Amino acid sequence: MNILGNASRRRNLLLCAAIAFTPLATLAQAAPQVKFQTNQGDFVVELNPEKAPKSVENFLQYVKDKHYDGTIFHRVIDNFMVQGGGFTPSMSQKPTRPPIPLEAQNGLKNDLGTIAMARTNDPNSATAQFFVNVKNNDFLNARGPGNGYAVFGKVISGMEVIQKIKVTPTGPGDVPQSPIVINSATLVK
Fold this sequence. Notes:
Elements lengths: L1 H19 L3 H7 L2 E6 L2 E7 L5 H12 L6 E7 L3 E4 L29 E4 L12 E4 L17 E7 L1 H8 L14 E7 L2
Antiparallel strand pairs: 1-2, 1-8, 2-7, 3-4, 3-8, 4-6, 5-6, 5-7
């Protein structure tokens, strides 16, 4: 019993030492987090730069540029997803940077609570818009090159806010009848 206990303690000490000597910048870059403050409440997403580097870099640049501040969730479909990041409350589309290449074949799935890049029928057309899956949406996962929707993170707190948004009454085009405003999107980690 002592031998196993000592081995376990040594392993834990080695793990602690490895973490202690890992540069702080590396730890911070491993899992950036973005807090969304909305008129329906706050939620936080944790991003996965290891699996979706281009999508995360693109998303974080929009966050740093304050692009999402004052945008709305303009497409809300209960039992599917909530989409935002591209329109103002007056339904004016905000200008974007050039699109990024599709990263749907990264091993991340469009499961409940994940965040993914929205795009048109062109697989390489994602810019600023994103969506949060409100259920497992397997049909959005990549089945080969050039299809699927790139998941790049997940909601880690405030999923109840997403659940509240998903049942918002909508009108034509799945646009909420009352604007669901993203007051700010801020890098918190």
